Amino acid sequence: MLGNNGQLNRKNMTRSNRHLIFEMTVIFLAAATLGIAWNRTLLFNAWTGEGPAGEAQPRGNVPLPLGLMQVKELYDRHEATFVDARDNKAFATRHISGAMSLPAGDLAARLPRFRTQATPAATLVVYCNGYDCHDSRELGTRLLENGYRTVYVFEGGFPEWRDAGYPTAGEGQ
Known about the structure:
- The structure is a single chain.
- The protein is 52% helix and 13% strand.
- The protein is of the alpha/beta class.
- It starts with a helix and ends with a strand.
């Protein structure tokens, strides 16, 4: 008799396990369908490479922040113009190799000449003296207001670049 009871219990457990798996599958499919339906526009935009407003960079005066690895990749691929927002003395002492000097306080006076070197279609990476320095964000915002479309702020700035051992230039070499 014990043998029959053991077989019966196994059959009941197998039936119970199948029922449990079926219920879990139904719940999962229902949740996935609801999630896809609820977020269809967001998912479509992500699939097509568009952002929420149909663009990779938000409109307005918000330069996007970049980290050291992203900045180095743009540098190595020559895909961006580097802009030093620090004052002339700091730039002359040492700066990222190939960077252009455009102190945040001198934008109005230097913008016409800057436009001849970097068109509004150029990708710009603006930096200053690191996380405590706000000149790069201010300059990036003002460049966006003046028609530049793709402006990034390298938040770690020159100190992070220098400490990583990446190429620099200037009198203080």
